[in-house]
Design goal:
This protein is of the alpha/beta class. Helices cover 44% and strands 20% of the residues. The protein has a 6-stranded mixed beta sheet with strand order 2-3-4-1-5-6. 35% of the residues are buried.
Length: 181
Amino acid sequence: MKIASRHVLLVVDETAPTPLKIVQQSSINQPQNWLCAAKSGDISLRREKSRQYKPADIAQALNNELQNLRSKIANQTLGLIFSETSEAMTEFDNPQAVLKFEHKWADVVDKAATSVGAQSAFNICVYKIADLKTLANPTKAFNELVEVHDEFWTYTNSMLVLSDSSLTQSHRIKICELLKK
């Protein structure tokens, strides 16, 4: 039976440990295998230095990385953590392209996982408040990210809040306030 993949926005402040530690301490049903996409993670989606964000290259890199891990991840539920997205936005000349690609990202991840016989249970996109603040309109970008994700989690002041919590709306307001400082 196929479970529904959860496309999660995780917004973190400077108190955050690694994203993997954050999700492992959460109360969610844990997948069989977590994979982290980061400079020193399980998979890498940015092989070349470029000032332009190229969604097709990112999608192809994800497919290639999961194909390379096929023997380890086939027939498993996966949690994929994309922890360098917000940092990448600060490095590209076209950060709006990252936001635009987020609208398709859940499908890209699901197809890549399915192509290796795995199932994406969690697709967690990590955005740092400090990185969002560098954008021309951080509040607008943040609100767009909230809208395009299935769930919104925050890790601020060393505390994780999941979107099923009664605190979600207050945390959304709090993040907007932090982005204006």
